[in-house]
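Quarterly update from the structural biology core.
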Amino acid sequence: MEKRPSRPSGRPSSRPSSRSSSSRPSDRRPQRRPGDRPSRPPMRPNDRRVVSDENKRVRKFAEPPIPEEVTGKELEKREAFALQSLAADNAERVAKHLVCLTMFLETDPERAYWHGQSAAFRAGRVAIVRELAGIAALNVKKYQEAQKELRAAQRISGSPSVIPYLAQCELALGNPRKTLEIAGSVDPKILSAAERVELRLAASGARRALGQHDAAVVTLTCPELTQGDALWSKKLRQAYCDALIAAGRDDEAARFVAKYPQTLTDQ
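Predicted structure, tokenized:
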């Protein structure tokens, strides 16, 4: 005889079914015990960026000392104007570092480099700051770092003033053809006299690296050779004399030294 299934008794079961427990979340929250820390909401991307920026601002950086006589007001108007986007206290500090960078660039290049690094740390989004930091790095033969700073300056401002120094970086890194390519990409007329000289020095060095010694002499044959009172005069005349000697034109080099003995005293 077939056994019939038993009918439900009508009383609710004390154990919930697996279906109901999985489909309906529990409304009960875990009880917080004394001493537990409150949970934090997940951090959004913008929050992470703010925290990261804050950490950068408070990170310690060993800045070189600034002479007491430097006020920051010695900065050129173009450079001072570029710092207006900074907070007042920070702008003043950056201005002092830039003044020191220029002050020590020839006499103490290593110190000038650290002033450039300090300024770039404080004002990394200001083009002129990155440019001057790159020039200071180039001056102490930190070529890859100089290239990074100069490229950043060019991205920010698009100014052609960094091109001569980028050309020098490529030459120092063993890329003379790239140097000539960069030198040929800019009209020298839009550069300052100092920038034109730096561009000629880079291009002449690239010609010499490629064995084109007479072309190196021609590259440095320019009106700036007659200017003896500029900061770059001795460097330009020395490079011209060296190019003549490398081209086997010793007699011309000797006559040039005799004409400008005050800037070629070591010849």
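Residues 5-27, 36-41, 46-55 have pLDDT under 50 and may be disordered.
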